[in-house]
Amino acid sequence: MTGGLKDGETDEEFLHSPFIRKQGNIYKPNNKDMDNESLNEKTMEDIHTKEIDLVNRDPKRINEDVVKVDFEDVIAEPAGTYSFDGVWKASYTTFTVTKYWCYRLLTVLVGIPLALIWGIFFAILSFVHIWAVVPCVKSYLIEIQCISRVYSIFVHTFCDPLFEAMGKCLSSVRVSITKEV
Description:
Distance between the termini: 105 Å
Strand content: under 5%
Structural class: mainly alpha
Order of helices and strands: HHHH
Helix content: 55-70%
C-alpha cells in the first residue's frame, strides 16, 4: 500500500508527512520527469507574512536624502553666550523627546490611514498596469507589425532604387579642399 507506514516509522511521523505516490506527483501521474527529485520546483513565498526588520527600517535607503535634524543642528549657542547648564540640558531633552513623541503620535494618527491609502493606490496601479497597460502595449506591437511590413515594402520598392541610382550618379563626384596661406 502506498502512503502507509514504512518500517521504523511511527504513527506520529506518518501524521505529519505528506502522502506520496510511487508513480510521482499526484497532479501529474505517470510523468517520469516530475518524479525526478533533482528537478527543483520553486516554492512560492508569502510576502504578506514575511518578517520585517524592526532595527533597520530603511534597508533600501530610500530616505537617505530626508532631513535628519538633531538638537545640535537647530539650536547652538556661540562662545561667550551660554545659558545655564541645567537650561541647556532641559532644552536638549525637551527637543529630543518632543520630536520623538510627536513623530510617533503622527505615525499612529496619520501613518496607518496613509498606509491604507498608499496600499490602495499601489494596488490600483498594479491592477491597471497588469490588466490594461501591458495588454495595450502588446496589442499595439502586434498591430504595428503589419504597418511595419507595409512600410518596409514601400521603402524597398520605391526608396531603395531611387537612392541607389542617386548614389551611382554622384559616386564620381570628388571634393578636394585646399588651404591657402
